[in-house]
Amino acid sequence: MNFNKIVIVILLLSGLQAAAQNDSILATVKPLSQYPPELLKTDEFGNKYYYDEAQQAKVYEIDGENVVVMDELVLLNKPRFNNQLDQNYYYFLNKKLNRVYPLFLTALDQYQEIQEDITQMTRAEQKRYVNERQKKLAEQYELQLRDLTTTEGRVFAKLMNRATGKTVYDIIKELRGGWSAFWWNVKGNIADIELKEPYDPHKNRTDEFLESLLQSNWNAGYFQPYPGYRNFKIKR
Prior knowledge:
Elements: H1 3-13, H2 15-26, E1 40-42, E2 48-52, E3 57-62, E4 65-70, H3 84-119, H4 123-147, H5 150-164, H6 168-176, H7 178-190, H8 205-220
Antiparallel strand pairs: 1-2, 2-3, 3-4
Helix pairs in contact: 3-4, 3-5, 3-8, 6-7
């Protein structure tokens, strides 16, 4: 089966909703030739494409026309609620997630930018950078944590762990040193926020709810996915 036929099959299987989404995206995407060459990728068939992170879609150019192939949706059933209180907590958590998510995206972007800058520096430059900028970033994390409610602080910590593979404790230790991380963990515990606790949807009921809510909000387009959001693998 050639590539053109594969694209047609994918578009047919995606259904009416995906077709409507494709129409909307096609109105905004540029011809492939207008994207920087270094941003183009090659699929398993040797075809060049641009991946639109915000739209979660691959943009191809075939016979001079744009062809958009949407990512597959990750569908998760809502968790089974044990009682009405359980269900109420699920929707309460969604409200907290909606408030925290933009804050999380900003913090994640800043942290990843700093990590990228560090890799391009000499040891001496890294030391100066730590003194000049990492301290400011750590202080910003502290202010964010202070402004959040207990539940929002937990959600923020879980999102950072899902995205980076590091707990908030690890991040603070990395930026400010072990002594600072120790005291921030103590403060977190006082506020009932465990900064060392990893994100595990299989073992933690709140994390199970969060994963379901994240996937639902991403699929519905309510949340902008962060780069690499699909890289998280849930291990049993």
